[in-house]
Amino acid sequence: MMEVQSDKFLNTIRGKAIAGHATPDELMKVFGHIDALEDFLDEQDEDDVFGTEGWRHLLGLD
Fold first, then answer.
1. Residue 2 lies inside a defined structural domain of this protein
2. Residue 4 — pLDDT band, cuts 50, 70, 90?
3. Mean pLDDT for the chain?
4. Alpha-carbon gap, residue 27 to 7, rounded angstroms
5. pLDDT digits (tens, 9 = 90+) for 6-60
6. Running DSSP on this structure, what letter comes out for residue 4?
7. pLDDT of 52
C-alpha cells in the first residue's frame, strides 16, 4: 500500500485530521505516502545524495 499521494489528497486529509474527521483508511494512505517517501530517500542514500551519513542524519533523526 506504499503509494505516493497527490498534494490535493494530502491537504484534504490534513484538514480532515485537524477537524478530527479523517477516516482510518485515509490515515493509512498518508502513512503509505510517508513509507514511499522514506523508501525513495533510502534509495538516494546509496548514491550519497545526502552526504556520507544519510538523510536521517541530515535531518537529525538518527
1. no
2. very high
3. 92
4. 14
5. 999 999 999 999 999 999 999 999 999 999 999 999 988 888 888 888 998 888 9
6. P
7. 82
Q: Which residues have CB under 8 Å from 42's CB, separation 6+?
A: 55
Task: Return the axis-axis angle of helices 24-45 and 7-18, rounded to nearest 10°.
Answer: 130
Q: Which domain, by its residues, includes 29?
A: 7-59
In a domain, 1, yes or no: no
Per the structure block, which three cell numbers stand in for 21?
A: 474527521
CB under 8 A, 24+ apart: contacts of 3-12 = 3/29, 3/32, 3/33, 3/36, 4/33, 4/36, 4/37, 5/29, 5/30, 5/32, 5/33
Closest by CA position to 3, among listed 44, 43, 31 = 31
